[in-house]
Amino acid sequence: MIAYFDCQSGASGDMILGALVDAGLPLDQLQRHINALDIGAVLQHERVMRCGVSASRIQVQIEGHTIQPSEEHHLSADVISGRAADVGHTHDHDHHSHDHAHDGAHAAHGEHSHTKVTSILDRIQASALEEEIKTTACRIYERLAEAEATVHGADVETVGLHEVGSLDALVDIVGAVAGLRDLGVTDIYCSPLHCGSGTVRCAHGRYPVPAPGVVALCRDIPMVQTDVPAELLTPTGAAILTTLASGYGRDCPPLTLRNTGYGAGGRDLEGRPNVLRIRLGEVATEDGRDHCVLLEANLDDMNPEIFSFLFDRLLTAGARDVFVTPILMKKGRPGHLLSVLGDTDQVDELAQIVLAETTTLGIRTHEVARRTLPRSWQTVTTDFGDVRVKVTQISGHKRGAPEYEDCARLAREKGVPMLTVYTAAAVAWAASEPTT
Question: Quick check: pTM over 0.70?
């Protein structure tokens, strides 16, 4: 499944969550992922109108306090080399001056708390989230730290995040990663990222919008400066999209549209709807044919334990498939043939990972043609919990395969064999299909 984000009114973490829910992600399913963080966060959903466009508005409530637009997602490294700055911010995101304050979920205005990136990463890793979600969420936070380190000329290890380290931003990032995964999204594309105008006061002075942290996150990314007097693109939104997107363009890639969602920002803008639109669909190719690149390397001198880590890195980077085949190499040595399938624009990135993480001295690449069946996702309810089922169709006949990660998670939680969960999901899906 492809996701394309229309960012004509910028993007923020809560707008991304709203778009996902509006596109069909069940709110209770998203809430279960947030519950795995164990921070007492509750998602609130309402339908709102933005310049005549109906959209989903998601707000985060933590310990009974609903995060307001004036408290959201402004990036500022106030802790550099252990030194904290206590300054107020003029936040053009909602046209109000205020002091940001967070101690966990929030604190009394006027106080400032600062969170080291390492403590956020530790919190994510210690949670009950699935490993795939943990890995991607941590990667987003690491990019936030790198951006701030670049702005302030500091080491990543010394950077502390003001507000992006707060729990509401943690909910946005984890929710976005988990929600996209649950919708079956494998490739993400964006329009150019639109930002507003005016100024914003950061930890060390007043800067024009976009703020320095956002600029650092958007390096090599197409951006459009608008005359809207607001901070349209927040650091959280920029971090999520620039980390996950594999391409940018004014036009959506050719796709067979399956669903659309609109996520609302916290206020109305003059002359444009304050919404982030997501379009979901399958690659639109003739007879399901497309072209990929196959990267190969022969390995006979590497510890096999490395393969698990290598697979995770390659798949996280966007590889379509990774597999290993036992082979017999020269001089009768047993070895492995590593095969990595990726898009044509991913060759350099995937090759760099293979060269860095394995003992190979070279990689072969050649283009291959694929013919694929259309795929969609359907969630079914079993006695053990909800399971996603990948559904495809050929010659008018459907078939479904329960998602491994969902079955494995429920098997661990319920203390039952995974095959039991898998069978229950398969039966539930078959029962949901109309008989012919």
Answer: no
